[in-house]
């Protein structure tokens, strides 16, 4: 398959590209606002082409008529979108519309997998969320992601593309550096202490829960979506909550202690940040993933295993 990944310099773009490049039959176009690297551990790096492009006005430079699939990962994350409204709208909405419109004209009917977020939900929230719950986002990021979902629905309904919007849980544990996402600490509170560094937890309520997914499981589900039949969902309703599991801050601290010891936990500092807390408290923390499981996705449920997977992946890298 010939596959385009936008936002390919980011963490998810990189780990997906590495997985796809394990198959010699895949050829990739990797694009981002900076020139994305080819993953160092890729088995077939010669099958990837990297392009620096601003999708807002240069989508035609990365879209080719022979594309089989597109992963739409570019975006300004939650705190970044809240801090800079114009930039969030330009990247998360305007550039997405420009890309999808280019796909419509250049390779009609192409499979599009759009990275959305649980941030599309806001209060009032039911005890358990399904895709039938009306999204009422309480952040600029959530609003912008919902606009992207509507674009995927409409362009699929009209037959211009064959798209799915995947509402990602928070992915933890991510390698690399902290990001502008409000949820960044949910990786940092493991990653930084294991590297001997301090991490600030921006909420003091250890009973606060969040919906998480491991990087390995996310990538498996992303690759799986390449083969899901196009008629698996109604053409006007293409949103799916990607499987995750519920973890509290205390659960994460306990798992960190079991793996990294008390010295790792000692590097955590709880310091409430009101604006970040407001965003975090608006997010749902319990989902019914029946639809995703029906589509063949899989689910993990053990945060300690997430930590051990992270350690193994870092060692391999």
From TrEMBL:
Q: What sections of the sequence does the record tag as coiled-coil?
A: none
Keyword Transcription listed? The answer is no
Short name of any one Pfam family annotated for the protein: Epimerase
Q: Which residues cross the membrane?
A: none
Range of residues in the leader sequence: none
Residues of the NAD-dependent epimerase/dehydratase domain: 3-202
Q: Which PANTHER family match?
A: ADP-L-GLYCERO-D-MANNO-HEPTOSE-6-EPIMERASE (PTHR43103:SF3), NUCLEOSIDE-DIPHOSPHATE-SUGAR EPIMERASE (PTHR43103)
SUPFAM superfamilies under this entry?
NAD(P)-binding Rossmann-fold domains
> Does this entry carry the keyword Chloroplast?
no
Give the keywords, sorted.
Carbohydrate metabolism, NADP
What is this protein identified as? Nucleoside-diphosphate-sugar epimerase
Q: Give the top-rank taxon of the lineage listed in the UniProt record for this protein.
A: Eukaryota
CDD domains according to UniProt: Gne_like_SDR_e (cd05238)
């Amino acid at each position: 398959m010939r596959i385009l990944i936008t936002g390919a310099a980011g963490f998810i773009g990189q780990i997906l590209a590495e997985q796809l490049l394990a198959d010699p039959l895949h050829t990739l176009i990797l694009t981002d606002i900076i020139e994305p690297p080819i993953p160092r551990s890729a088995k077939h790096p010669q099958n990837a082409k990297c392009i620096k492009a601003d999708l807002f006005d240069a989508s035609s430079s990365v879209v080719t008529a022979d594309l089989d699939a597109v992963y739409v990962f570019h975006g300004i994350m939650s705190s970044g979108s809240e801090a800079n409204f114009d930039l969030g709208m330009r990247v998360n909405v305007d550039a997405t519309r420009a890309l999808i419109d280019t796909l419509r004209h250049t390779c009609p009917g192409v499979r599009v997998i759009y990275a959305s977020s649980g941030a599309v939900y806001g209060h009032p929230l039911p005890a358990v969320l399904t895709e039938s719950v009306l999204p009422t986002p309480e952040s600029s990021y959530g609003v912008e992601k919902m606009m992207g979902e509507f674009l995927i629905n409409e362009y699929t309904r009209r037959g211009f593309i064959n798209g799915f919007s995947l509402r990602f849980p928070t992915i933890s544990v991510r390698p690399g550096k902290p990001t502008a996402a409000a949820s960044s600490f949910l990786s940092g509170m493991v990653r930084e202490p294991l590297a001997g560094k301090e991490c600030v937890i921006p909420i003091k309520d250890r009973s606060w829960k969040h919906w998480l997914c491991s990087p390995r499981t996310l990538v498996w589900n992303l690759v799986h979506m390449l083969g899901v039949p196009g008629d698996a969902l109604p053409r006007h309703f293409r949103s799916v909550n990607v499987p995750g599991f519920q973890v509290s801050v205390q659960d994460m601290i306990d798992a960190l202690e079991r793996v990294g010891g008390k010295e790792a936990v000692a590097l955590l500092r709880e310091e409430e940040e009101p604006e970040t807390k407001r965003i975090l408290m608006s997010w749902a923390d319990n989902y019914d993933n029946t639809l995703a499981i029906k589509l063949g996705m899989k689910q993990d449920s053990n945060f300690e295993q997430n930590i051990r997977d992270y350690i193994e992946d870092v060692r391999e890298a």
